[in-house]
Amino acid sequence: MINGFLDVFLVAASPFIGSFVTASSRSWPDWLRIATGRSSCDACGRRLSPLELIPVVSFLIQRGKCRACCAPVPWVHPVGELVALVIGIFAVLAFDDGWTLAAAFFGWILLFGALVDIRTFLLPDVVTLGLIPAGLVIACLSGGLDLLWLNSLAALIGFASLAAVSEIYKRLRGREGLGLGDAKLLAAGGAWAGPFALPWIVLLGAGATLFIVLIGHVLGRKATADTAVPLGPGLAAGCYLAYCLPAIIQPLV
């Protein structure tokens, strides 16, 4: 019964947490604004009422515009809220008790990092470096010292592999092509999901990034060799799916 109430509460709260995560990602790195800021229209500065802050619903009712100045509301808000809801649902389907909360927070923090990366082409260290010890603690609590050592090795392999790719690209092309933030994020994925998940995380990350490029091409934004495309969102999705999907699929096999 308690698990049922927790699951329902978590899913119901997910879009509101997504709203906070999205707004915070647009304020980063101004942590003071994140902690004390009030939601307001970017264009006219008017503070938003509670009825204007209902995730997704307010966006649809207002047709994606500010009620006062009719300026468009950034699309990232409803998208972030919906993704946060999906994260909560996956956590509920995959885990029980406190592990559900841990998985949900893992996904929401990844969402924050992905949204920041889309806006700035940077992955905050508070996300990447913070998730590594958190993942190792979860590994130790859930699987003991054996899983702790295995996931520690995965974190080292994850970082070293993408750091090596970054260095090789820099030497061949004479410029940065892959930031160390991506290497740190893959290390976090290894700390949470283990070494066998690393290839899937990279595959999903590359596939998602390619999909974004293809969508941009369809919309008329043709990519060239010099076009910068953030890898972080794809890697973040890969990390979360690699962590949750095995727990969801295993009982069905």
Number of domains: 2
The rounded distance between the terminal residues' Cα atoms is: 26 Å
From the alpha carbons, calculate the radius of gyration and give it in angstroms: 19 Å
Q: How much β-strand is present in the residues?
A: under 5%
Structural class: mainly alpha
Helix content: over 70%
Number of helices: 9
What is the element string, with H for helices and E for strands? HHHHHHHHH
Name the poorly predicted regions: none
Gross morphology is globular
Indicate the multimeric state: single chain
**Arithmetic mean of pLDDT:** 84
Biggest pleated-sheet summary = none
Q: Care to count the β-strands?
A: 0
Molecular structure report:
- By secondary structure, the protein is mostly helical.
- It has two domains: 1-100, no CATH class; 121-253, no CATH class.
- Helix content is 72%, strand content 0%.
- The protein has nine helices and no strands.
- It has helices spanning 2-27, 31-36, 57-61, 76-94, 98-120, 125-173, 180-193, 198-218, 232-249.
- The chain starts with a helix and ends with a helix.
- The model has no long low-confidence stretch (mean pLDDT 84).
What is the fold's blueprint, element by element?
Elements: H1 2-27, H2 31-36, H3 57-61, H4 76-94, H5 98-120, H6 125-173, H7 180-193, H8 198-218, H9 232-249
Helix pairs in contact: 1-4, 1-5, 4-5, 4-9, 5-6, 5-9, 6-7, 7-9, 8-9
